[in-house]
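Case study.
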Amino acid sequence: MVDLIYFSWIREKIGKPSESIETNATTVAELLEELMKKDIRYSEVFADQDLFRVAINQELTNFDASILNAKEVAFFPPMTGG
Amino acid sequence: MVDLIYFSWIREKIGKPSESIETNATTVAELLEELMKKDIRYSEVFADQDLFRVAINQELTNFDASILNAKEVAFFPPMTGG
Amino acid sequence: MYVSVQNEVFDFSKEIEQFSKKLNNVGALVTFTGIVRGKKSETLDFMFIEHYPGMTENQITSMINNAVKRWNINDALVIHRYGKLEPGEPIMMVATAAEHRREAFEAAEYLMDYLKSRAPFWKKEVINGKEKWVDATVDDELALDRWNKF
Amino acid sequence: MYVSVQNEVFDFSKEIEQFSKKLNNVGALVTFTGIVRGKKSETLDFMFIEHYPGMTENQITSMINNAVKRWNINDALVIHRYGKLEPGEPIMMVATAAEHRREAFEAAEYLMDYLKSRAPFWKKEVINGKEKWVDATVDDELALDRWNKF
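After joint prediction, the assembly is written out as follows.
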């Protein structure tokens, strides 16, 4: 089981702030493929990988990263703090 | 008549904060020559022109500047504000 | 080091006073305060900031640790708000204290540039009742390059 | 614009509060405060700052006017003390307010660099009873080059 967490317009478009899923994916990229096959909301949100970022266990990382030790995978647009 | 004003170690070495003098000098450089002939305190203080700066009527300027309209000529070391 | 991620509005002059009281043998103190622009009557109704609890605090703490390693700074403070913010209210502040001015300025600018693009905050503006997520700018991303050129 | 050349000690958090109250539609506020370094018990007995009355105020005002022309800043403040200063006391402060952070930071650094080397102040340190005029540094003079490269 891994927790998926969504922020900003990604949260709004997917329609929930988080969900727990079972997955056979071993990388973020594979996980995204799985999600995009599942529902059109995911395929719309995750179609363009330039538009969002990923953090595993609260650390920024990239789409090639392994999720084998992931408790929490978060997807969000580029940050706008400050 | 022109007012000469001294600051920092220049004031201390010349021994007074200001003085009014009559001069025939037309530039700062000529004025400095005149002063250096007058007394050893001036020749010691003004020997090395890299060590001090000049302002005419409270505006920073250089040693070639005319003093014909000068009411106030100030000599001081490089500033250390901030 | 003082890090606070909070919903409550803060008084930045009071925060500066408290921060400065703890300093010792410091020659230079730099502060930056970000304020919600726009008069309520004119354009912006309010701003809403979403964040990633936990990751936010960790990211900010590691940004400060990087700044301390890189510049000779004695202390640093970061306060960043989330939730609903009214025009004119402070959004966040950074303070850095060092022996010399250059270090204090550079560390403050470094923290600002990283907070803008690497701390997990997302701003939404509500203008005349219409909601809009603020886009990250290319300039903010490019600002980080300055700190990688060493 | 607020310029004060004064002997009296000032409370920089109160000054920041007052400065910020007058601002309107500002997104970024940067402050710099210079503090007399050194604990009294250890090294520095006190600092003494001499200045050129009249010229000082004019120079600072023209520095601020240059900063306003060059950056899009809404307001600026400079306070600089003269006379006897104790360790830990504030020497001077600069505040700049702008729409965006880059302008506010650059204008504040510009004002600092010019105050260091172009405002007619001279610092004397008294250390263990011995007086010594502070030398201008090559670094401070070189810092001005940054602003002439445009």
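Observations recorded in class. The beta strands of chain D are 2-6, 28-35, 44-51, 73-81, 83-85, 90-98, 121-127, 130-133. Residues 101-118 of chain D form the longest helix (18 residues). We will return to this complex in the next lecture.
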